[in-house]
Amino acid sequence: MRMRLIAAGTRMPDWVNAGFEDYATRLRGDYRLELTEIELGRRGEGDPRRAVLTEGERMLAAAGSRSAIVALQVDGRSLGTAQLVDWLRERARLGEPLAFCIGGPDGLAPAVDQRACLRWSLSPLTLPHGLARVVVAEALYRAVSVIRGQPYHRP
């Protein structure tokens, strides 16, 4: 199963890149995780909505028409590890690539939310975007390790 994290923003601290890569590298074989960074929309004076819409267009284009979209939203559905495992198994059975979308500083475009098969909340806290990248990668690695019967996860 191809999983892609599509994230707004292209300049992350080294610890973010290292953390994401650590988990993404562990996900090989039948489950793979890739990162696609989307350039932020231009934010001028006034209303940032245009920038958010531009980022959404870029995200959906990067995801492609075949991918199932997961919108990372603070007010989305909270999933425990067992729930994520069940959800991921079902998505793998359907055979669609997955695109996990993390918005920019002003959030995700409505078009991304509308196309999402899941609005996923990592926490009721608003997380820095770089940290969200690492948390998503770790959560997916943990879920896949359960699916594969590997000893990483301890309930």
Q: Helix coverage percent of residues? A: 40-55%
Give the strand content: 15-25%
Largest sheet: 5 strands, parallel
Number of helical segments?
Answer: 5
Question: Count the strands?
Answer: 5
Rg, Å, rounded = 15 Å
Shape: globular
Span between termini: 24 Å
Summing up helix and strand content along with how strands pair, one would put the structural category as alpha/beta
Which series of helices and strands comes N to C?
EHEHEHEHEH
| Sheet with the most strands: spatial strand order | 2-1-4-3-5
pLDDT average, as an integer?
94
Low-confidence stretches: none
Overview in brief:
The chain is of the alpha/beta class and 155 residues long. It has helices at 14-26, 49-63, 81-94, 110-115, 129-148, and strands at residues 2-8, 32-38, 68-78, 98-102, 116-121. The protein contains five helices and five strands, in the order βαβαβαβαβα.
